[in-house]
Design goal:
This protein is mainly alpha-helical and 231 residues long. The chain contains ten helices and three strands. It has a single domain, classed as Orthogonal Bundle (Penicillin binding protein transpeptidase fold), CATH 1.10.3810.10. The N and C termini lie far apart (63 Å).
């Protein structure tokens, strides 16, 4: 009996080890090709497809058209950094300064807000399921490191702009610009770019032409007046 239990324990240990190695190695194999190609889909897009299919929305699969860097207005790149992660080029996927600021605000009685960087958001969009758990957060941290090690900062930002959600069934800067302003992402004005960036925290509830975007514009314009810090 004891021998059988030991054998079962060894098999369980080996299976656990193999599963852990797969979870560690698979992201590297999936991320490296992203230096050259856009991902065909993402975890978030598949979740939204399921939600839209259940709700009877047509088309069920969201609109998304990936475009190259030269097809996205530089103003949108700068606005997104200003709104979401202005220290993007200064950190390795985790903005410790912003995390500290968020904790300090919470200690003063404010609401504890997330301090997710653009790299963390790409990791979540590409690979992760919705929800909150220590396992999910831990794997998100690992995926963030993989992205930072395997891709350049500019490439991570390219991916983010082509993966970000900009409305119900609308993914990517190109689809977002056409949906909200009737033009391609490369033709956006500075104000239109800032308005698109202003709604990224909650694109399903806020409109680039709405009151929330109006309130956020001044802060985004102030940051956009300077190049994104790189050193």
């Amino acid at each position: 009996m004891r021998g059988a239990l030991r054998r079962a324990g060894r098999r369980l240990w080996r299976a656990t080890l193999v599963a852990a190695l797969v979870l560690l190695a698979l992201p590297v194999l999936l991320v490296l090709p992203l230096n050259l190609v856009q991902p065909p889909t993402t975890s978030v897009i598949l979740q939204r497809t399921w939600d839209r299919w259940r709700a009877g929305k047509v088309p069920a699969y969201p609109r998304r058209r990936a475009v190259g860097r030269d097809a996205i207005a530089p103003a949108l790149r700068r606005a997104v950094l200003a709104a979401e992660d202005d220290r993007f080029y200064l950190h390795w996927g985790f903005d410790l300064e912003e995390i500290g600021n968020a904790i300090e605000r919470a200690q003063r009685g404010g609401r504890l807000r997330g301090a997710s960087t653009i790299t963390q958001q790409v990791a979540k969009n590409l690979f992760l399921w919705e929800g909150r758990s220590f396992v999910r957060k831990g794997y998100e941290a690992y995926l963030t490191l993989v992205l930072e090690l395997c891709l350049s900062k500019d490439r991570i930002l390219d991916l983010y702009l082509n993966l970000a959600e900009w409305g119900d069934g609308v993914f990517g800067a190109e689809a977002g610009a056409r949906h909200h302003f009737g033009k391609g992402a490369g033709a956006l004005t500075v104000e239109e770019a800032a308005r698109m960036a202003a709604v990224l925290p909650s694109p399903l509830r806020w409109s680039p032409r709405g009151a929330v975007a109006d309130r956020r514009l001044d802060a985004i314009f102030t940051a956009m007046a300077y190049p994104a810090p790189r050193e």
